[in-house]
Amino acid sequence: MRKAFRALIAPTITAIAAVAMVAGISMVAGTGARAADEPELIFKRSTVWKFLTPDHKLATYAVDDPLVEGVACHFTVPEKGGISGWLGVAEEVSDISLACRQVGPISFKGKFEQGEEMFRQRRSLFFKKMRIVRGCDARRNVLVYVVYSDKLVEGSPKNSTSTVPIMPWGDQMPAKCGDYLDD
């Protein structure tokens, strides 16, 4: 009877140990230089209740543009609960909303390319990433931000766009984003 029980439970224990090991390696590998780039959690709201495991949630985060002083972006992403979410192995869906605003006088810390990545976050254990990219509509002096998710094999066409017209702040004249485009 003990041999039968061990034969039944051994593959389950081995699978759980493998998942825990991969999750642990991913967490260790993900720490370090990117720690300063972590978004700030504003709040979470449950959308689906799960018994004995974490609920599915919507999470809203804030991130400052590292190259453009005076611009902040807020994005909301779904976070899976359940056992796979609890273990950190769930592949998150690509539904992401984005809003970026001028929150102070805008100044540029350097030049940038159209479509340059401003922020990146993993959305699955291995292959899926959420990206926020930045561009400049020089004619209108407007910064344009787009959020989307990509995957090693196949990305998602789901995206969200937000624009930030560069306006005067107090008595300070606005910068021209076209002056900071890398040709």
From TrEMBL:
One Pfam family matching this protein: CreA
Any one Gene Ontology cellular component term annotated for this protein: cytosol
Superkingdom field: Bacteria
PANTHER family named in the record: PROTEIN CREA (PTHR37952:SF2), PTHR37952
Protein known as: CreA protein
Lineage: Bacteria, Pseudomonadati, Pseudomonadota, Alphaproteobacteria, Hyphomicrobiales
